[in-house]
TrEMBL record:
Protein known as: 3-oxoacyl-[acyl-carrier protein] reductase
One Pfam family per UniProt: adh_short_C2
Organism: Nonomuraea muscovyensis
Keyword entries, A-Z: Oxidoreductase
Molecular function via GO: 3-oxoacyl-[acyl-carrier-protein] reductase (NADPH) activity
InterPro entries: NAD(P)-bd_dom_sf, SDR, SDR_fam
Family the entry assigns: Belongs to the short-chain dehydrogenases/reductases (SDR) family.
Oxidoreductase found in the keyword field: yes
Lineage start: Bacteria, Bacillati, Actinomycetota, Actinomycetes, Streptosporangiales
Length: 262
């Protein structure tokens, strides 16, 4: 199947580690021009950029901070100056809050309202800001693919703080509205909802936990970042002819890991 991605310009946000890094590499293997963003780890981003180029793509590293809307605009403008505009947006960057995935031990009423605002602002309004920054160019070229990275937590919930799951569920509404709004201009918008994914950024998970979680999935295995990346590449490519406004659940999404977050 031809993904029609050679020389397409792809912006993958939050691409230093995990699903974003794997996605950037996967687009690189398709010969795409991949702009990848970092927030605090430029060196990691450069290593992923090297991988993209070694795989046959081209790479550009830019900074983007979901908590600083000007950097979202600047990142899109930098890509446009360099390559003439973004064809494919993968809105993957995440503000976890704290040190990583949400802590299920935190009680709802102990999450300050400022933290709610910060999480919704970064992870939902931040996704809308990424879309706003690239949409005019896609409309002008009458072709675009947008993939918003949500989480199974959006549907399944998670004991503990709600802001992460609430922000991620908001991406569903964003995708549905945008699918109608932009579809006539050849732009397809979808959500990928990964479940518990084994990534290079996640602290080691005991084998017994992996086995238990894997046993709760249809395929009896947890996804790795590469599995999610392949799905994102399909949705973000010309191989996706007319699928839009959908939420695609990764195989791991059936495995519930409330004690580990994600
Ligand atoms: N891993 C899972 O099991 C899982 C499950 C469901 C959904 N997801 C979703 O999948 C996506 C990727 O998850 P992951 O586990 O692969 O993430 P990750 O490895 O923790 O990487 C997060 C990325 O986001 C960047 N980032 C952090 N804070 C940011 C901010 N404020 N502004 C902009 N960028 C920021 C980081 O850049 P720096 O390194 O430069 O700081 C990094 O590139 C997220 O949207 C997440 O919600 C993940």
């Amino acid at each position: 199947m031809d993904t029609e991605l050679r020389d397409r310009v792809v912006l993958v946000t939050g691409a230093t580690t995990g699903i974003g890094a794997a996605t950037a590499r996967a687009f690189g293997r398709e010969g795409a021009r991949v702009a990848l963003t970092y927030r605090g780890n430029p060196d990691l981003a450069r290593k992923v950029a090297d991988d993209v180029e070694a795989a046959g793509g081209q790479a550009l590293v830019v900074r983007l901070d979901l908590e600083d809307p000007a950097t979202v605009e600047e990142a899109a403008a930098t890509v446009a100056r360099h390559w003439g505009g973004v064809d494919v947006l993968v809105a993957n960057a995440v503000r976890w809050g704290g040190d990583g995935p949400p802590d299920p031990g935190v009680r709802f009423e102990d999450v300050p309202i400022e933290e709610w605002r910060a999480m919704i602002d970064a992870n939902l309004v931040g996704a809308a800001a990424q879309v706003r920054a690239v949409l005019p160019g896609m409309r002008a070229r009458r072709w675009g693919r947008i993939v918003l990275i949500s989480s199974s937590v959006a549907e399944e919930g998670l004991p503990g703080p709600g802001p992460y799951g609430t922000a991620k569920s908001g991406l569903y509404g964003l995708a549905r509205a945008l699918a109608w709004e932009a579809g006539r201009d050849g732009i397809l918008v979808n959500v990928v909802a990964p479940g518990f994914t084994l990534t290079d950024s996640r602290p080691p998970v005991p084998a017994a936990v992996v086995d238990a979680l894997a046993g709760a999935t249809p395929t009896r295995r947890l996804s790795g970042a590469d599995d999610v990346a392949k799905l994102v590449v399909f949705l973000g490519s010309g191989a996706n002819g007319n699928l839009t406004g959908e939420v695609v659940r990764d195989g791991s999404a059936a495995a519930r890991a409330p004690h580990l977050g994600g």
